[in-house]
Design goal:
Largest sheet: 9 strands, antiparallel
Number of strands: 11
Mean pLDDT: 84
Oligomer: single chain
């Protein structure tokens, strides 16, 4: 009884602490708990070790911390630096040529035939017939979007493909519908050589092959080529076929879109 009275006389604090029997088994020692960074992108020191996010070794294997600081490739469809901006949408790619190049091409084509007039067709060894061909002009226009791939043009920096709209075909009456200077669709490849010159490649569907078609040079806000050659026409009744019927001038004007 004396011990109990003495304990009570020490006051409430002592009574609850020293006289309670001293059982602190339920008390948690914070120093024994292993803490880790719970988020590697919240700009907080979650485990209170003085290191934040990717500076903390706890985040060493996190994809965000393994990612490069900038976009490393600008035409692969991958967000390498994980900043939610991919390829040309990422400011890291602003200076890359692939992001400066046009996403579509406005193409205008004009084919002008300057006829030589009468052309001699050899029917037999001693018989000739004169054929006359008028001069004529055919024109077309199209907007070609960037193709999803290089379509086999390994020499091209970028490929564009789409249908072609004929704006006039004055040569059909002279040469017939089977002779077309402009196809119904175009697949073109560009090599962006310099600020003043580009190579234009064209895909031949029948031959399934790419050929370098012409060189475009800068003219104000457009790129232009003018090529001229003699036009040979196959005439099955003529022993001297093909016949040179005139001079064909092809003007191609390309505007970046």
């Amino acid at each position: 009884m004396r011990a109990a009275s003495r304990c009570l006389s020490l006051g409430l604090l002592v009574a609850l602490g020293a006289c309670s029997g001293g059982d602190d088994g339920d008390k948690v020692d914070d120093s024994a708990v292993e803490r880790v960074e719970t988020s590697c992108t919240n700009n907080q020191d979650d485990d209170v070790d003085g290191l934040i996010d990717c500076d903390d070794d706890d985040c060493a294997a996190d994809p965000v911390c393994l990612a490069p600081d900038t976009e490393t490739a600008c035409e692969d469809g991958v967000d390498e630096d994980l900043d939610t901006l991919t390829d040309c949408d990422d400011p890291d790619c602003d200076a890359e040529l692939t992001c400066i190049w046009p996403s579509e091409l406005q193409v205008e084509i004009e084919a002008t035939l300057t006829s030589h007039g009468d052309v001699e067709c050899q029917i037999t060894s001693d018989t000739t017939v004169a054929y006359y061909f008028d001069s004529c002009v055919t024109s077309a226009t199209t907007v070609l979007p960037k193709a999803a791939s290089d379509l086999g043009c390994t020499s091209c920096d970028r490929v564009y493909a789409g249908p072609v709209t004929s704006t006039s075909d004055g040569c059909a009456a002279t040469l017939g519908d089977e002779v077309r200077f402009v196809p119904s669709s175009l697949t073109l490849g560009l090599v962006f050589g310099s600020e003043t010159s580009r190579e234009l490649w064209a895909y031949d569907g029948e031959a399934e092959a790419w050929t370098q078609a012409t060189t475009l040079t800068r003219d104000a806000n457009a790129w232009v080529s003018v090529d001229e050659e003699e036009l040979l026409l196959e005439l099955p009744d003529c022993l001297n076929s093909p016949l040179t019927i005139g001079s064909l001038s092809m003007t191609v004007t390309v505007t970046d879109g």
